């Protein structure tokens, strides 16, 4: 099987009005375009462009193929997504069984576990710069950021709250502060923190060690006035990826993409627990059960050239594997497949061949491949998603 697939852009409010249109070489729609899904996920299955218009899940089923264990996306952010974390497979199974037994509809706004799967995810930057908040930085670094913001009462209170007690290690202190922030008890701190950030940015303190963090947090404060997620965001690492660089969000790790265009690959799941910067339901108790509060550097993934022009992003999960292929007219790259794959073109003109079939792709278009291997030629760039090892 080698069939082109397509889907409509999803118009989430945080989406960019230009980035996906620019990738695809078309005029912007005038509306936010946040994500395009390439896969068989029931929330928005791709259509097969073979003249039938069938959804991909039906096409795979009719061909006797198993559902995809992953979902591939183009993601384009203009403002912050919600802060979120995803459960482990074991946590998801327990939570799903509990909510099923309670009779909570799977499409209910307060439903947390819509399936029994985990949802690790990786994102690779397509834009020259892609900003994200991911993971929790060491408390000492956050204390230095807060010290640079001045002596407002709320800022001082947050710094004091972050100091571990004699009975706590750093992880326990961060968990306590996240719970305190999201419980609604820290509204005055949110107000003072937002004002201090605004003043710092307005003063043009670009020489600060935390100038980039302060600018991003100030934007968040303006976009989500009064949202306690501002405190959580203040505890997180700011990452700025360059094109081709990636970050990985395993189970429990807080993350919130901020701005830029990327290719995202994740396990096929809808399980999301939010930690602020959203009007959606935030279940503080359940978030604190699944979130990782270990501090440290952001989980950056360095691409490894596994063959000429083929760069792998290995994160060691069974659900998916991702590779970036840089193609030229002089050579054709062949990639062995461990299951049904999706090839997504992101630059130039890409030619995909498998089992005697051929598809030509331009940026922002994709094809599904069910074969032992796939050959990629032309002159451009493509991403290949397939099941993991």
UniProtKB/TrEMBL annotation:
Keyword Metal-binding: yes
Region (Disordered): 30-51
The organism's place on the tree of life at top rank: Bacteria
GO molecular function, one term: mannose-6-phosphate isomerase activity
Phosphomannose isomerase type I catalytic domain ranges (all copies): 3-138
Family, per entry: Belongs to the mannose-6-phosphate isomerase type 1 family.
This protein's name: mannose-6-phosphate isomerase
Native species: Microbacterium plantarum
Lineage, uppermost ranks: Bacteria, Bacillati, Actinomycetota, Actinomycetes, Micrococcales
Gene: manA
């Amino acid at each position: 099987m080698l069939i082109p697939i397509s889907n409509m852009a999803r118009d989430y409010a945080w989406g960019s009005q230009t980035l996906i249109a620019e990738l695809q070489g078309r005029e912007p729609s005038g509306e936010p375009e946040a994500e395009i899904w390439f896969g068989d996920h029931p929330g928005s299955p791709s259509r097969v462009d073979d003249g039938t218009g069938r959804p991909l899940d039906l096409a795979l089923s009719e061909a006797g193929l198993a559902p995809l264990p992953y979902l591939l996306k183009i993601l384009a952010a203009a403002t912050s997504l919600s802060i979120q974390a995803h459960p482990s497979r074991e946590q998801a199974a327990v939570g799903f069984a509990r909510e099923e037994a309670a009779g909570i509809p799977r499409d209910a706004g307060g439903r947390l576990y819509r399936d029994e799967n985990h949802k690790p995810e990786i994102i690779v930057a397509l834009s020259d710069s892609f900003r994200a908040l991911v993971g929790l930085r060491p408390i000492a670094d956050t204390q230095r950021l807060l010290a640079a913001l001045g002596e407002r009462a709320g800022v001082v209170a947050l710094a004091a709250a972050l100091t571990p007690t004699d009975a706590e290690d750093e992880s326990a202190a961060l968990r306590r502060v996240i719970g305190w922030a999201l419980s609604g008890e820290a509204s005055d701190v949110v107000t003072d923190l937002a004002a201090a950030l605004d003043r710092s940015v307005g003063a043009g303190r670009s020489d600060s060690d935390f100038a980039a963090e302060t600018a991003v947090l100030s934007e968040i404060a303006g976009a989500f006035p009064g949202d306690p997620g501002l405190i959580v965001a203040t505890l997180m690492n700011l990452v700025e990826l360059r094109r081709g660089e990636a970050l990985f969000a395993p189970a429990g790790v807080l993350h919130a993409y901020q701005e830029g265009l990327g290719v995202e690959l994740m396990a096929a799941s809808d399980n999301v627990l939010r930690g602020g910067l959203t009007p959606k339901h935030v279940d503080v108790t359940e978030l604190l059960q699944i979130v990782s509060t270990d501090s440290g550097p952001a989980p950056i993934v360095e691409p490894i050239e596994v063959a000429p022009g083929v760069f792998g992003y290995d994160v060691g999960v069974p659900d998916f594997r991702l590779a970036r292929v840089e193609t030229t007219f002089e050579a054709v790259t062949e990639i062995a497949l461990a299951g049904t794959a999706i090839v997504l073109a992101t630059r130039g003109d890409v030619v995909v061949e498998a089992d005697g079939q051929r598809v030509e792709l331009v940026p922002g278009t994709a094809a599904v491949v069910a074969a032992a291997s796939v050959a990629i030629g032309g002159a451009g760039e493509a991403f290949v998603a397939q099941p993991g090892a």
